[in-house]
Write the structure tokens for this entry.
Amino acid sequence: MPSQGPEQGAEPLLSAATSPTVTAGDYYGPRWGMAGPAKQVALPRPGRNKSAAARLWAEAERLTGVSAPA
């Protein structure tokens, strides 16, 4: 099973948070699917499910009591 240390595992998040070339909607992950250096990759199919995203967002708002501005 491929694995990587915490430093390399944090790379996609840090790239997305700090890269000056990132735009809204970009998705970063390991270069080789489960391991490897961070790079921009295609959003996995479950992440493109708009109805699941709406349900998840609504549940997050309900649980936190915080709503994003419209």
The longest helix spans residues 50-64.
